[in-house]
């Protein structure tokens, strides 16, 4: 379904060989040159985001669909390699594929192979092949998803003195989902519970011990979600104490203690709502002589809050049906892809909610052998990149057709 002159696999090979862990300049330029080769103009806006657009003859008669993913990768850079899959990379499902095709499964290895240059290759294939009857299609690529997401925050008007430049009706976000259609993800907040007491000599019955008060604070953290309702797609929220620091001398009643917490939220919890609720719970469980302050970690862009899209939405159905068809035509195992489920990590999809949003792409965050994305063994199966490209092309054709 993709433009025959654009080969997503060849694009991916070059993309993985283009480091983008320290700067996305070279990677962004590669995408600009690729778009230009197909007669598509692109512009760099909003702190380094790349935008390109295709308008139908009737842009007001259909939805505005945005394809989004990110150009940056985590460190360190991992060199490109293409070859036959190892047993770990093949997985149980691809044994069937090998039998059907009579060939070894091929993979592309290297930093960004699945997170997120593989998804980018698929989105580019769909974008370049698109010829919408109605509505319009925007490609929006962000520069710093693996860091602070300042580009996406500015692009969507979530920073001071900025406005939403997208104003979209639907979002398709490229991330490694194993070709499943992901309709929700938990949010991630980070904060610190600061306990302040009064220092004293440890030999005296004096002072207010902030480290001892951590017992009550940790109890409040442990019980924080007792009785919480589970989200229908994401399940329960999760609160985890991750770092604790306190005291300065072995013979002194400590005046200070700090507990860092990691929060994985579900709708409708906001960052500020979480902060204030946790502050109240810790205050109730801590001696009055010890001060309590709960603060979110300072960052220049908003935290990723949880998002969810109705699994029955037309966007979900269009991408899932396209993934099923593409999987069949490319010879993937019947049980690989096209499922509808939550995504396992926080993404910039959070900034697009509550607009209907799905996350989709080739590759996996992890497999049976361990981590894949962000790992030294990052890889993506070539057949899945091809299936993802066809999926995106089919989905955009369905969503921007004159009669839906």
Molecular structure report:
- This protein has 404 residues and is of the alpha+beta class.
- Helix content is 29%, strand content 24%.
- The protein contains eleven helices and 21 strands.
- The chain has helices spanning 8-16, 25-37, 87-90, 93-101, 117-129, 150-155, 210-222, 271-284, 314-329, 349-352, 382-399; strands spanning 42-45, 49-55, 64-70, 81-84, 106-109, 136-142, 170-174, 181-182, 184-185, 187-196, 200-201, 238-246, 252-253, 256-265, 291-296, 307-308, 340-341, 357-360, 366-367, 370-371, 379-381.
- The protein has a six-stranded mixed beta sheet. A four-stranded antiparallel beta sheet has the order 12-14-10-15, covered by helices on one side. A three-stranded antiparallel beta sheet has the order 4-5-21.
- A hairpin with a 3-residue loop joins strand 1 (42-45) and strand 2.
- Helix 1 (8-16) runs antiparallel to helix 5 and helix 5 (117-129) crosses helix 11 (382-399).
- The two termini are 19 Å apart.
- Residues 94-103 have low confidence and may be disordered.
Radius of gyration: 24 Å
As laid out across the biggest beta sheet, the strand order is: 1-2-6-3-7-18
Low-pLDDT segments, ≥5 res: 94-103
The helix count comes to 11
Strand content: 15-25%
Q: What's the number of extended β-strand segments?
A: 21
CA(first)-CA(last) distance: 19 Å
Describe the main β-sheet briefly.
6 strands, mixed
- Main structural class: alpha+beta
How helix-rich are the residues, as a percent range? Answer: 25-40%
What sort of overall outline do the alpha carbons produce when their principal axes are compared?
elongated
């Amino acid at each position: 379904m993709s433009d025959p002159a654009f080969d997503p696999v060849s694009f991916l090979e070059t993309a993985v060989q283009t480091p983008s862990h320290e700067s996305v300049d070279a990677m962004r330029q590669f995408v600009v040159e690729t778009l230009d080769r197909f007669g598509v103009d692109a512009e760099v806006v909003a702190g380094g985001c790349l935008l390109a657009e295709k308008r139908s003859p009737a842009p007001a008669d259909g939805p505005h669909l945005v394809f989004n993913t990110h150009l940056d990768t985590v460190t360190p850079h991992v060199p490109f390699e293409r070859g036959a899959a190892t047993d770990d990379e093949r997985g149980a499902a691809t044994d069937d594929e090998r039998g059907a095709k009579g060939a070894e499964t091929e993979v592309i290895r290297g930093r960004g192979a699945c997170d997120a240059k593989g998804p980018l290759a698929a989105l580019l294939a769909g974008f370049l092949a698109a010829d919408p009857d109605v509505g319009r299609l925007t490609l929006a690529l962000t520069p710093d998803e693996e860091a602070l997401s300042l580009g996406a925050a500015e692009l969507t008007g979530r920073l001071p003195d900025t406005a939403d430049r997208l104003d979209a009706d639907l979002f398709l976000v490229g991330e490694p989902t194993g070709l499943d259609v992901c309709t929700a993800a938990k949010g991630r907040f980070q904060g610190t519970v600061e306990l302040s007491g009064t220092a004293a000599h440890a030999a005296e019955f004096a002072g207010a011990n902030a480290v001892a008060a951590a017992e009550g604070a940790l109890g409040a953290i442990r019980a924080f979600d007792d009785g919480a309702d589970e989200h229908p797609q994401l399940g329960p929220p999760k609160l985890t104490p991750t770092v604790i620091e306190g005291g300065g001398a072995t013979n002194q009643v400590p005046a200070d203690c700090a507990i860092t917490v990691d929060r994985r939220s579900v709708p409708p919890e906001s960052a500020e709502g979480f902060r204030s609720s946790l502050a109240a719970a810790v205050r109730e469980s801590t001696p009055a002589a010890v001060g309590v302050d709960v603060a979110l970690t300072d960052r220049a862009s908003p935290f990723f809050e949880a998002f969810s899209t109705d699994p029955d939405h037309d966007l979900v159905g269009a991408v899932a049906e396209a993934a099923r068809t593409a999987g069949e035509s490319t010879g993937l195992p019947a049980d690989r892809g096209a499922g509808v489920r939550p995504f396992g990590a926080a993404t910039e999809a959070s900034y697009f909610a509550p607009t209907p949003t799905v996350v989709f792409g080739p590759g996996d965050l992890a497999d049976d052998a361990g981590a894949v994305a962000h790992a030294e063994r990052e890889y993506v199966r070539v057949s899945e990149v091809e299936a993802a490209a066809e999926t995106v092309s089919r989905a955009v054709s369905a969503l921007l057709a004159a009669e839906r």
